[in-house]
Amino acid sequence: MRSVRTQITLAFVVFSVLVISILGVILSYEIENYYFERLLASLRTETKVIAALLKESSLRSESRMELESRLNVIASAGMMRITLIDSSGVVLYDSAVPDSLLPTLENHSNRPEVIAARKSGTGANVRYSKSIDHDLVYVARSLSSSERSRGGFQNLQFVRISVELTEVNRIMYEIRFKIVLVSIFVLVLVLIVVQFISRRLTKPLTEIADMVKEIKAGNLDQKLPVRTRDEIGRLASLINEMTDKLKADIEQLKKLERVRSEFLGNVSHELRTPIFSLKGFLETLLEGAIDDPAVNKKFIEKAYHHANRLDHLLSDLIEISRIESGEMKMSFRYFDVVSFLQQAVQDSADQCAAKNQRLVVHVPDGEVMVLGDKDRLMLAVGNIIDNASKYSPAESAITVDVIDREQFVTISISDNGPGIEPEHLPRIFERFYRVDKNRSRDVGGTGLGLAIVKHIIEAHGGKISVSSEVGKGTSFSFDLKK
Ligand code: ADP
What we know:
The chain is an alpha+beta fold. Helices cover 56% and strands 16% of the residues. The protein has helices at residues 4-59, 64-77, 112-120, 166-216, 231-286, 296-324, 337-354, 374-391, 437-442, 449-459; strands spanning 81-86, 91-94, 122-129, 134-142, 156-164, 333-336, 358-362, 369-372, 397-404, 408-415, 465-469, 473-481. The mean pLDDT is 90.
């Protein structure tokens, strides 16, 4: 494959050669034409001068001999040939032919310049002359009646002058030579300029290619220099932006990967405890305890308790992984938050009654419609009430408040339990975070309850907030759109 630089250079060279050739041909043709026209004009003037000379000679009644010797002088001084021709084409005088040989000359009436002169006064023609091996230019002039029959020539009609074309040819040769020289010079200049431009164009491209190679190899720390504000500059800065983005994305991925393996470690750890205990009780039973009426029921109950813990843990795990993988689709509908909360309280009534706890609900009269996924919100509210009941002592009270505001409704669930120390507060929504591990396990916690609550509330565009005072109690609250 040809490089971009070679392609640009080749295109420019072909184009320049074409333009220079066309210009050269046109120019040399025009110049040649100009010189030839000038020569013709000067020869026409010469014929006029000779006509005037003939007239003057006639006035002075010069002899033919005297006139001819004067014409011979003019012809040799002007390096030309002068011919006088009569109306029927017979040559009367020729500076290049002695008079004695004149009768041997052909009749000139058919010469193109003579024919043209007879028709329109003057005529010109270029012919190759075998005898002198050169192109000759002939200019003939038909004499007017006032100029005719002078100088002792009978029926004199045409004056003809011919010169060699060597002068024009020589000038043209020189001009063509100069045109070729200038063309070569221009071509070299074009080559130099093209090399310079193409290097400027391709250098950043090479840099970009090198950089992309680095990116491919996983090196994202390099930056491309952005020197111009054209397309190439834009490309360079876009690639820089892309590497920054890639870098951030990779960092994010790495972080996610870390979180994932941490989560997996936590899960295995959480599963191990109940499975280990379950196995222990079952083994003890199998080893004979089953036949001991004093302990068998107690061991079976304990095994059941751990199986229950496993069940809770797995339900929470399934829930959180569905939420975090984005598999769980929310379905938002309008529903009455008053009856919704009454239902939630009823669902927890048994749990609270077991600890003699009071569940109080403060709701406005009538219906208050809010927008949300009722089932998911039920799970969230259930988790918060469940925690309040779990961590608060017996005989305490749990209060659910609904405050109807203009655009939204605020729900808060408060208890007068042990409270949470300020340093733990920001972390209680993390997965598997517990203030007191043993206590949480004792009351059947999984460490995932509040993480699930946070996800659900955030999926509703809200924010879960918590306030707590050690020894006094804890209050969770969030808003729902109306
Ligand atoms: P768990 O299953 O352990 O209850 P959660 O995510 O529901 O996990 O709660 C995280 C931790 O926050 C709990 O272990 C507990 O220490 C603390 N916590 C949650 N709710 C309350 C509450 N109402 N009063 C006191 N501590 C609480």
